Amino acid sequence: MVAILGVGTTRFTQKIERTIVSLGVEAARLALSDAGLAPTRIEGAFVANALGGMLFGDTTIGQTLLRDVGLRRLPIVNVENACTSGSSALWLAWNAVSAGQMEAALVLGVERMCVPSLGLINSGRTEIDTLLGLVTPASFALRAQRHMHEFGTTREQMAAVVEKSRRHGALNPNALFQRAETIADVLAGPSVADPLTRSECCPIADGASAIVIGSDRLARELGAGVRIDSVVLASGGYENPADLARWDTDTETAAAAYARAGIGPEDLDLVECHDAFSIAEILHCEALGLCAPGEGGPLAASGATSLGGRIPVNVSGGLISRGHPVAATGVAQIAEIAAHLRGTAGARQVEGAKVGLAQCMGGDLAGDTKSCTVAVLSR
Amino acid sequence: MSGNNLPPFAEGIFTGDGTLVELVGSRCPLCGAQHFPARTHCPDDMAETEAVSLGGSGTLYSATVIRTKPPFGLPAPYAVGYVDLDAHPLRIFMLLDPAHTEDFRIGMPLALKSGALGVGLNGEPCIRPYFTPTLKD
Ligand SMILES: [Zn+2]
After folding, report:
1. pLDDT digits (tens, 9 = 90+) for A91-147
2. Domain-by-domain residue ranges, chain A?
3. Taking CB atoms and an 8 Å cutoff, what residues of chain A touch B63?
4. Which of A63, A107, A123, A379 is deepest in the core (most CB within 10 A)?
5. Where are the beta strands (DSSP E) in chain A?
6. Per the CATH hierarchy, to which homologous superfamily does domain A128-197+230-378 belong?
7. ipTM of the predicted structure?
8. Mind telling me how many Å the CA of B34 is from chain A's nearest CA?
């Protein structure tokens, strides 16, 4: 069994002028100090960053920034896996600790992307689909159109995801957006790709998140009580024809994570999922089995996914309100779940939370995702 | 739109020009799987593929109008969609006719055209294929 020993997340923001190194160092220090572990006891580190190479020519930044927190002469791996960069780093670290290769590992996700040179996010500049005008919001707008067509999902139901997200974000001091927004406000905004308005698309942000994970023995020594029950990482299936209203890769990855953890969706107390767009949260709720296929719209509108509801989803504010510093997101989701299981989530605490799940997705290929991760945590 | 002397946005994607355009895919001689864009080898059994025409007609599976700043000099706004091809059981992503941006509905019959549309990777004007609503007889 592998435990979470400490977590630390910086403020997610678009305003700061800080380097990747300074953001990463802050998160690493927070997590190490939260764990109460000296840097010399960390035996390996997995550092996720998705865009530094493209935007700044910064590569192998893990070694650069961890030198500043006293992590030297140990295995450090830099990880890029699109939006799942951070959760893929966790997968690597979890495997290393599970296998007994290291007693304690640091997982860090850091991104700085709020710069003028950031263009439209796509899935590879030379891909044929990219050259034919496919941008990431369009991938999800096409899913939304199909979901509306097949299941009668409404724009109001999709906007309800954002309205709920803003209420949650207002309770998270680290979130980028902390102000309320009504369903009417969401729908009145400019369209990015029909039917998705600007508020239905997650904002970019700068930020970093880190966690320290370790063996059972170390967890007992430190009195840490949050376990990682499963972490599953999968690539897409890329079947043609792709079904844009049901996401097999998502469903199968979740099923594998449930099976390995020995639980089902009915056992969950909270979920963090990759709500890069309003429709994405609806699709993920269906894939995770929080409702029947096609019922994600009514679920969002029912209030069941709000704090205090049957199954709170993205009480952190999610990508839509916390902001989406690409490689930090997958780690911040784990830090969020861990905080609820430890009872330290403050105003947004899910009372009595015992089991939580984090789902993340990255990249786009042939109407499928390139990477999907699902992790189950418990206390 | 004319542009007979312009290069295609990419090689090996489509043949013909104007209103007589067909997509080019590949077919595996062993398992019969067809792919678009064409692949040199079948990903399932490594066999070398042969080129196959995927025709120029299909049915609209999903469509959206993109209203952010367009990439590659495409018009603002512009429409894209997934199209189920008539000739083969393939669902492909494609541009939709800029002259009909607001007109696309799921289930519409479509025909492939090509014309000067946007620029390529190096900023040079180029020809792109796009689906347009099939004219009623
Ligand atoms: Zn084959």
Report:
1. 999 999 999 999 999 999 999 999 887 765 665 667 899 999 999 999 999 999 999
2. 2-117+205-228, 128-197+230-378
3. 142, 145
4. A107
5. 2-9, 44-48, 76-79, 104-111, 191-193, 196-197, 207-215, 226-235, 270-272, 355-362, 371-378
6. Thiolase/Chalcone synthase (3.40.47.10)
7. 0.96
8. 9
